[in-house]
């Protein structure tokens, strides 16, 4: 079954008809707050078609300078390059694991570039493009995946929390943080990233409830990449995910997650709502995980090649490049310069990762409790003895 037909079935189950982008742009203007209209508003917000044609949407206008447009292209190309390098490094044994963002560049760069410096981000483990937008050096993302540190950056330096592996839990962290922002009287916003699979977690449901009731300044950015490891979205929900918001009392919108302009426009609008005291909003970025779940996964075991091929035609970088070339916003010299920059980034990533020092193997026992704990002391002693047993074995082997 293709993704198109899966989406079709889901929307039919939800009791509404799928409409085309063309129809959407000519539809009567509706505010995203009009929850009653949402069941019928089952189309993607799209500003750039897969063919690279610019279209308008009644609720989400955007007007970017040529420089800003070039910046979005550069961000996506460099993020894809970094991600490809990381996948290759894992294959060469330099990383323990890697979770690729291939295909999700527009969702991440569009939403990431909508943020203000004082906004705060709570990511999953796949938000490499958002990290890039926050100014976290890409090589810092790799330490944890190499197993040489427990995170890799100071969350407060870039208002970008550490990667979170416990599915959905960061939605609660973001909501709590947003409630704190409210109490401080600040006008910054908070954004929580999570996936389609995470939408089934209790933590996400609780985050929706609390943020709605407290009217907290948080944006829930769900990248529906169609898969939660080997589980398709249709096993997570009977209605399009963005419609879940309605039951909690805040608006939800589904955006073309492979359209960087639409992701930017919708996220900006949601952040503005949050900042101005209008409470949370759910964005479902409809996209596709082009690669494996992680380097430990083999998607050929559970999904058809034709599905992945169909999404190749919607590639986020290709469609922006087509548009920028047609508009004369980029020329060959610019494209070549970005290519050269991406090669240099790849080289820097490879060299930096290979040079990362191994940590002291006992360091894992530090920073657990401020004042120490008997159980940790016991585990530390056990581990030290275990490690010493190898040294003893080596000594015996040498004697023989
Ligand atoms: C609480 C919890 N349950 C299960 C897992 C194992 N797990 C890791 S990734 C994943 C799937 C997540 O899918 P989704 O939310 O769609 O995000 P994606 O990986 O597609 O970006 C699961 C079940 C986990 N890390 N945490
Ligand atoms: Mg997913």
TrEMBL record:
Q: One matching Pfam family, short form?
A: E1_dh
Q: What InterPro entries does the record tag this protein with?
A: Alpha-ketoacid_DH_E1_comp (IPR050771), DH_E1 (IPR001017), PdhA/BkdA (IPR017596), THDP-binding (IPR029061)
Where's the Dehydrogenase E1 component domain?
74-344
Q: Highest taxon of the source?
A: Bacteria
Q: Which cofactor does it need?
A: thiamine diphosphate
- Tell me, what is an example of a GO biological process annotation in this record? branched-chain amino acid catabolic process
- Using the UniProt annotation, give all residue ranges assigned to the region (Disordered): 1-39
What does the record give under GO molecular function? Answer: magnesium ion binding; oxidoreductase activity, acting on the aldehyde or oxo group of donors, disulfide as acceptor
Where does this protein have compositionally biased stretches of type Basic residues? 10-21
SUPFAM superfamilies listed in its UniProt record: Thiamin diphosphate-binding fold (THDP-binding)
What keywords were assigned to this record? Oxidoreductase, Pyruvate, Thiamine pyrophosphate
NCBIfam families annotated for this entry? PDH_E1_alph_x (TIGR03181)
Q: What PANTHER family does the database record attribute to this sequence?
A: 2-OXOISOVALERATE DEHYDROGENASE SUBUNIT ALPHA, MITOCHONDRIAL
Name of the protein in its database record: Pyruvate dehydrogenase (Acetyl-transferring) E1 component subunit alpha
């Amino acid at each position: 079954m293709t993704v198109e037909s899966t989406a079709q079935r889901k929307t039919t189950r939800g009791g509404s008809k799928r409409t085309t982008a063309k129809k959407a742009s000519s539809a009567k203007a509706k505010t995203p707050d009009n929850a009653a209209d949402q069941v019928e508003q089952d189309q993607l917000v799209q500003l750039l078609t897969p063919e690279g044609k610019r279209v308008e949407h009644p609720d989400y206008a955007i007007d970017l300078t040529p420089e800003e447009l070039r910046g979005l292209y550069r961000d996506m190309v460099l993020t894809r390059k970094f991600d490809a390098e990381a996948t290759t490094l894992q294959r060469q044994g330099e990383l323990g694991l890697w979770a690729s963002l291939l295909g999700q560049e527009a969702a991440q760069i569009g939403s990431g570039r909508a943020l203000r410096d004082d906004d705060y981000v709570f990511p999953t483990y796949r938000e490499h493009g958002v990290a890039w937008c926050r100014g976290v050096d890409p090589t810092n993302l790799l330490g944890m995946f190499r197993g040489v540190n427990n995170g890799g950056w100071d969350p407060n330096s870039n208002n970008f929390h550490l990667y979170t592996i416990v599915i959905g839990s960061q939605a609660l962290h973001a909501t709590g943080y947003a409630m704190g922002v409210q109490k401080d009287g600040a006008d910054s916003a908070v954004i929580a990233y999570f996936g389609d699979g995470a939408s089934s977690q209790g933590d996400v449901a609780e985050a929706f409830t609390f943020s709605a009731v407290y009217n907290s300044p948080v944006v829930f950015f769900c990248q529906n990449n169609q898969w939660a490891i080997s589980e398709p979205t249709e096993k997570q929900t009977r209605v399009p995910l963005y419609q879940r918001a309605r039951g909690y009392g805040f608006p939800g919108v589904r955006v073309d997650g492979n359209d960087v302009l639409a992701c930017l426009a919708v996220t900006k609008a949601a952040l503005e709502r949050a900042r101005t005291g209008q409470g949370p909003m759910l964005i479902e970025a409809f996209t596709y995980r082009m690669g494996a779940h992680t380097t430990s996964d083999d998607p050929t075991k559970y999904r058809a090649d034709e599905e992945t091929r169909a999404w190749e035609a919607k590639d986020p970088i290709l469609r922006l490049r087509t548009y920028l070339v047609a508009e004369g916003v980029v020329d060959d010299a610019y494209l070549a310069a970005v290519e050269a920059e991406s090669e240099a980034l790849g080289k820097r990533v490879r060299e930096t990762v290979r040079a990362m020092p191994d940590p002291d193997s006992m360091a894992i026992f530090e920073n657990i409790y401020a004042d120490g704990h008997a159980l940790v002391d016991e585990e530390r002693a056990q581990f030290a003895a275990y490690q010493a047993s190898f040294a003893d074995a080596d000594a015996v082997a040498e004697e023989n």
